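Everyone, describe these structure tokens:
***
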Amino acid sequence: MSAPTTPGTALPASASPATTASPMAAATAPARPGRGGLLDWRIRFAILSVVWGFSFLLIKVGTEAYAPFQVALGRVLFGALALLTVLLVRREPLPRGLRTWGHLSVAALLLNTAPFSLFAYAELSIPSSLAGICNATSPLWGMALSLVALSEDRPTRRRFAGLGLGFLGVLTVLGAWQGFSGVDAKGTAFALLASLCYPIGWIYVRRTLAGTPGSPVALTGGQLMVSTLQLALVSALFTSTPSSFPLWPTLSVIALGALGTGMALQMQYGLVTEVGPTTAQMVTYFIPVIATTAGVLVLGEQLHWNTPVGAAIVLAGAALTQTRTGARKPA
């Protein structure tokens, strides 16, 4: 649900790994003006923001009829089907090699199976708007982890300030000055842990799958296939088969996978190619705004003053963590 990256390339360590299916989009691909789709890139950018912003609402509706593991399973299943259809049309093969599939299995666990399940469990007890704001902390976690795990990513005063500002925003959203009253601690912890999974997974992808042959679609499709198997096993062990398939929760899960994973990733790949990764990943900052708006207007969730104020502080801090003091010379 944030801007994705690909194992064949490398993002700046502070870049947001994605609230969406995986960090498999070509995040450092050079922009190629004039190679966009039928719609202007700004329109596609807006559509992408809306699709990913509404993902949290769709999760909330899906959990009304299905167990969290089942919502996550449907999400990766329909996402995988969408990407496999694209591969079939393009006649592109899936990744090859046991080593590649082994790394994709770990990536699927960190970037799909775990966070998708955690967000679904979180939204059993917290509003979808809060889950969307928690997702926006991924760049903050990513910056903090990259300082430890990626030796080439050097800290700066500005980025440290952004990290502190971002987590101040989290405390504002949660109402720390009033003892976090009215906030479900367990659900919020699940959502924050889900957002932490993304940068951990991205660092793993960067260290193990960088330069792996194959298109982003093929690698992401393979990853979602593995995640589908993982969640099918977990669902079989810990949940019972649904006795009915209510219309709106079922459509929500299908849309969450086919649109929020399949179509959205394709649109993201096109944006990265056309306008570059820096502009394309700005979609990350619109997601919590749309998630909050959708939760309030569609689901009738309550909105207190500290939620939008805290969200703005979180996004400002995340933006600071991604700034660079100067361009690096190519290796």
Q: What stands out?
A: The two ends are 31 Å apart (CA to CA).
